[in-house]
Specification:
The structure holds two protein chains of two kinds. By secondary structure, chain A is mainly alpha-helical. Helices cover about 65% and strands about 0% of the residues of chain A. The radius of gyration of chain A is 41 Å and the shape is elongated. The two termini of chain A are about 80 Å apart. By secondary structure, chain B is α+β, with helices and mostly antiparallel strands. Chain B contains five helices and seven strands; from the N terminus they run ββαβββαααββα. In chain B, the strands form two sheets. Chain B has a five-stranded antiparallel sheet with strand order 2-1-5-4-3, with helices on both faces. Chain B has a two-stranded antiparallel ribbon with strand order 6-7. In chain B, β1 and β2 form a beta hairpin. In chain B, α2 runs parallel beside α5. Chain B is globular and about 45 Å long. Classes of the chains: A mainly alpha, B alpha+beta. At the A-B interface, α2, α4, α6, α8 and α10 of A face β2, α1, β3, α2 and α4 of B.
């Protein structure tokens, strides 16, 4: 005994520990370790005081320093079982902080909890209830349900309210407890004390949020409470309950709309107003009046100084976005103003609303606003804005965009924003629009050229992706370029060294394409002017072009031959203005040249012999150093390009010697007819137009019969990737196989024959007895063009292989340019996406439903008994009712609404009373009720009771048709 | 369950009181506290008091050097929680007479008791200050 006194005398208390921790000089971690060591010794003490203090210190260390104290669990139980309240309290606190379902000692404390729950000291019982609410396991909940059940009727308020609230935990851990205790929980709604009522409502609210349906029959009760509630906390809970009940029962919504509005109007508490707004937006969105009021209140919120209200105001508007777009447009100014709020969360919310408002009519205006904000805001939000613009505009297949010229300029502007981090998306969209929208290619090219020509942009690593797209675009659509020389200059500018290899490779590939295109055009032009007989052909060609507008590239090329034909010069007198008068052009050529610059015919290119010569020189000088590049990709393309250049120069008889320029031009022109065939051949390689690829392309591949996709392939071992046939295997790896398939039906036959061949050669690598892709040739042909994919366009296909967006609407009939849509992009996600919620059997809700039904039988019995005592008015009501029931088939919810009607009636009665102006309160009440009595032979008390009885009665009646679908058959008469 | 946790944190980001209404392992708690506290402390006065973090909505309010943080479910009423925080502070204020960080540090068990009276199983149980303080004052008298 003596030792324990000494022990506790020298023990450091929690206070000492806390203070020590603040003034320690040895470092926090060491101090804590030391304290823990001490506590470990103390906790083993036989003296309860020492032990309790030790446990208290451990709780502290656990909570604030995050120490694991599960090793002390048994000591905690010892302290919990102390008979002294002050120790017990320490023990319970430690338990509720550190115990969890996995704690083993929980098995030991059932009896302890049972004893404490039954304790005479209400605070001890309170401790035990608190603890149970924290650590309940299914076993504990099951074993202690009877105790909790008894406590629900305890005469002590403190115990009763805690016991009510603990039910929530008990129900969730042990659903069978609902059968026992639910009825009593519902009774608690009528408890004499508001705290208990509040606790019961809280429990029901939480239960209803997870599954509202079973609680519909309680709606009249909730309504009564709401009408009489003077406590905002309680009102909030009740309004919240209605918020979840209304969506499942539209008739209830109709009844409750007005009372909710009234709450909104009369209360001064913002939290209650907010809850009402939320309920309206979620459950009462069909009631115009309620929504209008809610929007009005939201407007007030958004105009407030308090950022909290602004944030919540914006947030609550979003559920109205689809159902009540006017609510947003009406407040557009307020919302847009929030874009420059000091709070990023508010900015994001307002951005979400703004993007939700975008339609075809206001997309340009909105995007301009967003862009403007993007230029001036912080990097993080700037990127939010950019991503919002990009995703909104590309939604579907650019469904919102009618003016693509404008949109590609926006893309260009976005790429230039210094904080932009969405360059990958810009890249994708630039390429995608180029592929899909033919008519915008000229403008797209302009935007891309500007990006490429600005040497400053090459410095920014984040721009490289967009630049790569731009380079690809100018290469691919060179035929609409006004000035190929300038493009090549831009693509070969010295600073391109800063580009990563992959992008640089795209640059070089584009140079190659532009070069081939230019020389080919020149040659064709030259040949056709030389040969007068060609004019007729050209003319015909031109007419065809202008007739059909958009043409296959081959034809465009023939059309380009017409440039130099004098016939067209007269046809296009204004076209002179468009001509880029480069100084070094020979006047002779210039005379001949005209530009058929009609917007639909993408030919505005005038190429002189000297220009070609300079182009060759430019390429030779700039690309030669790249032959030594360490990047293989760059090196290879450079050598391809130079190799081709050399060949062309050879054919044309051009020497790499500046001095002989005039002579070179002469020889060039002489050899041009020889070169024509060669260049036409090369050009034809590039003339295939790639198209967008459907995401669903793969799903088009039917699984061949006999191909087992399920069983394990392990047994086959690892096949070695010996690649004798780079074509197929490579395509397969790149994912380009499907590209090929979906692009063109004709080639898939070819591919499958190739595959069959490959299979013959390498039979070991194939699965047995399968036809692989042999019978998957029934692929649709989603592309508009039937163009064979050529294998030497790897670089292009790298971009093509990117996923393309899905579309849903067929092309619109209006002035919007043609956007290529793949046939299978129509309604890509029409597979059934209905939730299977109905199938899910929720054990909680089924039990509750059962219990509620039982309740009704019982309460009906009681109400029958009361009937005997009740007055004659009851009879009147019942006969009225039965008359009604003859007319209409009843269902459960119809009755709920009816019961609610009655409650409302009774409330109206009360209000009538209150409104009568003459006398003092008590007098007024009795006077009024007597007035009512004389009218309806009912007094007030009876009235309310009867309402309740009526409710039960009606619930009982509803029992039999419960098996019928509850929501069917809306009976308008009930709702009048 | 509405309230998932209540944290009291000082300006330096040290936890002064932590109450969880769902089980998290110590590591999870430490990580959560670290992230949330960093997020909330970084915000300025003219920003709103709500922060979304993982699946929680955190509602916080600053009183002198102490931050009160409450983590709730998605469908909880933010304004009501703000009022609740204020109610907690007022209650503590009444009990400690001008509550400060030190009071809570030195009387942690009392602070806990107050919270336990107010919140149970994540639900707000009591908001009447006299009702909350009655048992604790009784205990103070008896000991």
């Amino acid at each position: 005994m003596g030792s324990s006194v000494m022990e506790s005398f020298f023990q450091r208390s929690l206070d000492d520990l806390v203070k020590g921790l603040r003034v320690q000089v040895i470092g926090e971690a060491r101090y804590v370790a030391k304290a823990l060591e001490e506590t470990r010794k103390e906790i083993k003490s036989t003296d309860l005081h020492t032990k309790a203090v030790a446990v208290q210190k451990l709780t502290y260390l656990h909570m604030l320093q995050g120490l694991d104290i599960s090793w002390a669990a048994f000591h905690v139980v010892e302290v919990m079982s102390s008979s002294k309240f002050c120790f017990k309290k320490i023990g319970y606190l430690a338990a509720s902080q550190s115990f969890h379902e996995g704690t083993e000692v929980l098995l030991l404390i059932t009896n302890l909890l049972r004893k404490d729950l039954g304790s005479k000291n209400e605070y001890e019982a309170g401790l035990a209830l608190d603890c149970l609410s924290r650590i309940a396991t299914p076993d504990l909940a099951r074993d202690l349900t009877p105790e909790v059940f008894t406590m629900l009727t305890s005469s002590r308020l403190y115990v009763r309210k805690k016991a009510t609230l603990v039910l929530l935990k008990v129900f969730s851990k042990y659903p069978d407890a609902i059968r026992i205790a639910f009825k009593r929980l519902v009774e608690k709604l009528e408890d004499s004390d508001t705290q208990v009522v509040g606790a019961a409502v809280t429990v029901l609210c939480e239960l209803a949020i997870s599954d509202p349906k079973p609680y519909l029959p309680l709606a009249p009760e909730f309504y009564r409470l709401l009408a009489n509630s003077s406590n905002n906390w309680l009102s909030i809970k009740l309004v919240k309950i209605f918020g979840v009940l209304c969506p499942v029962e539209p008739r209830l919504a109709r009844k409750i709309a007005e009372p909710i509005c009234e709450q909104m109007r009369k209360t001064g508490a913002k939290s209650l107003v907010f809850e009402c707004i939320r309920t309206v937006t979620l459950g009462l969105s069909e009631h115009a009046g309620a929504v209008e009021l809610a929007v009005e209140k939201l407007k007030e919120f958004m105009a407030e100084e308090d950022p909290n209200l602004r944030y919540l105001g914006l947030q609550s508007l979003s559920p109205l976005m689809s159902s009540h777009p006017w609510a947003l447009t009406e407040n557009k100014l307020l919302i847009v103003r929030c874009l420059k709020d000091a709070d990023p969360s508010i900015q994001v919310e307002s951005l979400r609303l703004i993007t939700g408002m975008v339609s075809e009519d206001n997309v340009i205006e909105t995007v301009e606003i967003l862009l403007q904000y993007a230029r001036s805001s912080e990097p993080v939000f700037c990127n939010e804005l950019i991503s919002a613009i990009l995703s909104t505009c590309s939604k579907g297949i650019y469904d919102l965009i009618t003016d693509f010229t404008w949109y590609v300029q926006v893309l260009g502007a976005i790429a230039r924003l210094p904080n932009c981090e969405h360059e990958a998306e810009v890249e994708r969209q630039l390429v995608d629009i180029g592929l899909r929208v033919k008519s915008v290619r000229g403008d797209l090219l302009k935007v891309c050229r500007e990006l490429l020509m600005d040497p400053a942009l090459l410095d920014h690593a984040h721009l490289h992706k967009a630049l790569s797209a731009a380079a690809w675009v100018v290469g691919e659509f060179a035929e609409v370029a006004h000035d190929p020389f300038q493009l090549i200059e831009a693509l070969l500018q010295p600073r391109t060294k800063l580009l990563p290899a992959s992008v640089h490779a795209v640059y070089l590939q584009s140079v190659l394409k532009i070069f081939v295109f230019s020389t080919h055009t020149w040659v064709r032009g030259f040949v056709s002017t030389g040969d007068q007989g060609g004019t007729a052909v050209v003319e015909e060609e031109f007419e065809k072009n202008s007739r059909e507008g958009v043409k296959d590239q081959e034809e465009n090329l023939s059309g380009s031959a017409g440039i130099s034909s004098p016939v067209f010069h007269d046809l296009n007198p204004n076209s002179e203005e468009r001509i880029d008068n480069r100084q070094h052009k020979k006047p002779m050529v210039e005379d001949k040249e005209g530009t058929c610059a009609e917007s639909n015919v993408h030919l505005a290119t005038r190429i002189s012999s000297r220009l070609i010569l300079e182009m060759m020189e430019l390429i030779r000088v700039n690309v030669s150093p790249l032959l030594n590049s360490v990047e293989m990709e760059v090196q290879e393309r450079a050598s391809n390009l130079l190799g081709l250049l050399k060949k062309v120069q050879e054919i044309l008889g051009v020497r790499n010697d500046k001095l002989h320029e005039p002579m070179d031009i002469h020889t060039m022109e002489q050899h041009s007819s020889t070169a024509a065939n060669v260049l036409a051949g090369i050009q034809s390689i590039f003339s295939v137009e790639p198209g967008p690829v459907s995401l669903l392309a793969q799903s088009k591949v039917t699984v061949p019969k006999g191909l087992d996709l399920v069983s394990s392939l392990d047994e086959l071992g690892h096949p070695s990737y010996v690649d004798d046939d780079p074509g197929t295997e490579k395509d397969w790896e790149d994912g380009r196989f499907f590209l090929k398939k979906s692009r063109d039906g004709s080639i898939s036959g070819e591919t499958s024959s190739l595959l069959a061949l490959h299979r013959e050669k390498h039979v070991t690598f194939y699965l047995p007895n399968q036809a692989y892709f042999g019978d998957s040739n029934d692929l649709s042909q989603p592309l508009q063009e039937d163009a064979p994919m050529l294998s030497d366009r790897l670089a292009d296909s790298l971009m093509l292989a990117e996923p393309k967006p899905q579309g849903s609407k067929p092309p619109q009939a209006k002035a919007r340019p043609v956007v290529i849509r793949l046939e299978d992009e129509q309604e890509p996600f029409d597979h059934p996406s209905k939730s299977r919620k109905g199938l899910k059997v929720d054990i909680l809700s089924t039990t509750i439903r059962e219990v509620l039904m039982e309740n009704k039988t019982k309460s009906w019995a009681t109400s029958n008994r009361r009937d005997a005592r009740a007055s004659t008015s009851k009879h009147h009501r019942r006969s009225h009712r039965s008359a009604k029931s003859k007319k209409h088939e009843r269902n459960e919810h119809g009755d709920v609404v009816q019961a609610l009607d009655e409650t409302i009636m009774s409330r109206d009665a009360i209000e009538d009373d209150v409104n009568s102006p003459q006398i003092g309160k008590a007098e007024k009440r009795s006077d009024a009720s007597s007035r009512r009595h004389s009218k309806h032979s009912k007094n007030h008390a009876q009235l309310t009771r009867e309402n309740r009885e009526g409710m039960r009665y009606s619930r009982q009646r509803a029992r039999s048709p419960l098996n019928i679908q509850p929501e069917v058959a809306i009976i308008p008469d009930f709702l009048l | 369950m509405a309230i998932r946790f209540i944290l009291l944190v000082n300006k330096q980001g040290q936890t002064r009181l932590a109450q969880y209404y769902e089980y998290l392992t110590l590591d999870e708690r430490r990580a959560l506290e670290g992230e949330i506290v960093r997020k909330c402390l970084a915000r300025s006065d003219n920003q709103c008091s709500f922060v979304e973090h993982r699946n929680y909505k955190v509602i916080y309010r600053r009183y002198a050097s102490l931050f009160f943080l409450v983590g709730v479910d998605g469908d909880e009423n933010e304004l009501a929680i703000l009022e609740f925080i204020h109610c907690v502070v007022e209650t503590m204020d009444r009990y400690f007479c001008n509550v400060c960080e030190l009071d809570i540090m030195n009387h942690l068990e009392k602070a806990h008791f107050i919270l336990e009276e107010m919140v149970m199983n994540g639900c707000i149980l009591e908001t009447n200050k006299s009702n909350i303080l009655a048992p604790i004052q009784l205990m103070d008298k008896s000991s």
